[in-house]
Predict the 3D structure of the following.
Amino acid sequence: MSRESNRMEIIVRGGESEDWEDAAAIYEDRAVIPNLLQIPYISRDAIRDRFENPAPDRHTLVAVVRERVVGLLGLHFGTGRQSHVASFGLMVHSDYQGRGVGTALLTAAIDLAENWLGCTRLELDVFTDNEGAIRLYERFGFEKEGTMRQFAMRDGALADVYLMARVRPSAGS
């Protein structure tokens, strides 16, 4: 697919069961897989099941361009004493990276988490060499809280991952 101009309309909405096929294309994108903290070769049946039967503590947001899901963000809430904490995973199809899709998804996720669901701490894990993602997260106030050394297997080698978090400023210390 050729790159379109950087000006495109991005619609962010809640994920729907029929989004699973576009989501599967992102999970299968060979340029996306190395930066995911999930194993490759997730079955299309498993992806479809995630969309048709979402977990109660999970909120899925999708970014749509021209009626195609090109990015997704899964927001997962803790329970009990961590019910104010959410973690998330974000992925954008390689044809749409660097074009505002991640920004649109993250903007919506922070609004949902902090203004509607009472989240005071958002956290994520990101490979230490994923500079584009790290810059995006830092623009939204996420800070590196630690390095998890040899945290995840990637292409046959153990790789380091940053733990990053954003604590809502009005949440106290």
